[in-house]
Amino acid sequence: MNQVFNKDILQGKIAFVTGGGTGITGGVAKAFAEHGAKLAITSRKEENLAAMKAEVESFGGECFTVAADVRDFEAVENAIAATREHYGKIDIVVNGAAGNFLCAANELSPNGFGTVVDIDTKGTFNVCRASFEALKESKGQILNISATLHYLATPMQIHVSAAKAGVDAITRNLSVEWGRHGIRVNGIAPGPIEDTEGMKRLLMPELKEKLTRKIPLQRFGKIADIENAALFLTSDAASYVNGVTLVVDGGQWLLGTSLA
Ligand code: COA
Asked: Using CA atoms, how far apart are residues 145 and 168, in angstroms rounded to an integer?
């Protein structure tokens, strides 16, 4: 249980979280529930949803689940509508659904590139677009999970770098267009976070120690580090923060330390 913030910091809030079944975004969803929010989580995989629902309910939280692929706008619209029907409103939307794998640009197929852009970038747009009316009504907010890969260049990650650059553009554009409706739009760019599916896929164990020495704070991040950033950005403590992608990476990207 995360102890940094008051446990009722999100009391009464309804959070709709994509990719909320696992990994960093799963941690963020749980942290929201531990701090008073009621959850609606969506993922392509029913089994991830069921596991998260059971976990959240085990500590007394509420978790509504609805399977949807963020690439499918109609499915996203249905998921948003079902959540509004279930809870009556949506206050916070977290775009965490993402796809990733390592592949050299000269070996990546156009469909491989497009698949990741479709999940990360178009998926984020789809969810934002479908939740606009609900967020306008609640004067709610959006939190987009991004990355630092595209700040410099990350070999084997051209698809994700391009996709996350698009996500950051969405964060900035919507913060400007929707700020007047009382909707805040921010992002988080996690650095190297331990024990995530992404890190298991991307990082050979023997490289971890070498890389740790190159991180200014001399450690990998924890999912709790991202949870704390998400709690801050979605709470009233950040009520004047809009259009920001908060980097939570121990200063890693500034040294240009490639993970690949
Ligand atoms: N290397 C190269 N290309 C790959 C690949 C890999 N490891 N994995 C998938 N692709 C390509 C496929 O070859 C295909 O292109 P093609 O039709 O030209 O052959 C394209 O990507 C789509 O693959 P497919 O398996 O049909 O996509 P999907 O929608 O079922 O899966 C992925 C989406 C590819 C992102 C998959 O990796 C995934 O679901 N990952 C789980 C989520 C995740 O990665 N989470 C971590 C987030 S950091």
From this structure: 9
All structural domains of the chain with their residue ranges:
14-194+223-247
Is 99 close to ligand 1, i.e. is its CB under 6 Å away? yes
> What does the alpha-carbon distance between residue 24 and residue 135 come to, in Å, rounded to a whole number?
23
48 CA → ligand 1 middle, Å: 18
pLDDT tens digits for 136-184? 999 999 999 999 999 999 999 999 999 999 999 999 999 999 999 999 9
Ligand 1 site, residue 103, Cβ cutoff 6 A: yes
Please name the fold of domain 14-194+223-247. Rossmann fold (3.40.50)
The protein residue whose alpha carbon is closest to atom 35 in ligand 1 is 99
Three-state DSSP state, 110: helix
Which two structure tokens, joined as six digits, stand for 3? Answer: 């102890």
